[in-house]
Automatic annotation (TrEMBL):
GO terms for biological process: transmembrane transport. This is ABC transporter permease subunit. It is found in: Cell membrane. Keywords: Cell membrane, Membrane, Transmembrane, Transmembrane helix, Transport. The keyword NADP does not apply. The chain crosses the membrane at residues 12-35, 68-89, 101-122, 153-172, 209-231, 251-273. It is a multi-pass membrane protein. SUPFAM superfamilies: MetI-like. InterPro entries: MetI-like (IPR000515), MetI-like_sf (IPR035906). It comes from Pseudodesulfovibrio cashew. Gene3D superfamilies: MetI-like.
Amino acid sequence: MENAKSAYLQALPLFMIMLIFLVIPTIMIVIVSFWDYNAFSVIPDFIWDNYDFLLTSSVTWQAYAKTLFYAVTSWALTLLIGFTAAHYMAFHLRTTKSQTICFLLATVPFLTSNIIRMISWIPLLGRNGLVNQTLQAVGLTDHPLEFLLYSDFSVVLAFVHLYTLFMVVPIFNSMMRIDRKLVEAAIDAGATPWQVITQVIIPLSKSGITIGTIFVFTLVMGDFITVRLMSGGLSASVGLLIYNEISLLQYPAAAAGAVTLLATVLIMLAILFRFANIRKDL
């Protein structure tokens, strides 16, 4: 009994933090999403108009389709790059010092803000940017490539640049816990390098891949500034719709959009958790 009481007291600070900074704000957003509003004020009420307009608008569905496209494309690329980088650091770098140096080099871009890192792409990808000038100089194209900037390509590129490290770290942690004897046994049994990766390393790295997937999906789904800057305002995302509604002081409509986005992300997380028992693997 005394141990149980002590455990509750130890968990109390975390419970209070979660209650104040997560649970109560979420409940308030859900409540406001049912309120009415006009051009001048927000009116406490209980109406379904915000959700009715949100779910029947073609703009909403187009924004969700575009956001899912960004999320899936960014996830596939970050998984490919992140898995390759993690595999190299875990199985080809033999010393802790070299692994630490690689991690520090990977985190150097994070010493600056996301906005500065995104803006840094503009001089490179612009119509008269370094990439277009180089391609024309070597004769690969005779005119500037317009799709490099202010397009879906530039948005996905920025997402991959921003969030690849969130995929590398959990996969690397999972790989470091793989018993090297299993890999050696597979090689001794005649497995090819591809079979070792697909039949030994990937299944044993499942928890890291799942955690990295959760990070990338949730960050991309809720992002709006990357889409706004890198698409030049030509593309829309769910986060950008919510931001625009907040700018127009349409708080109930924005709250309805936030609740719908939260429900969508939770459904996606529930699906992801079915592929790996993260709690057991950790």
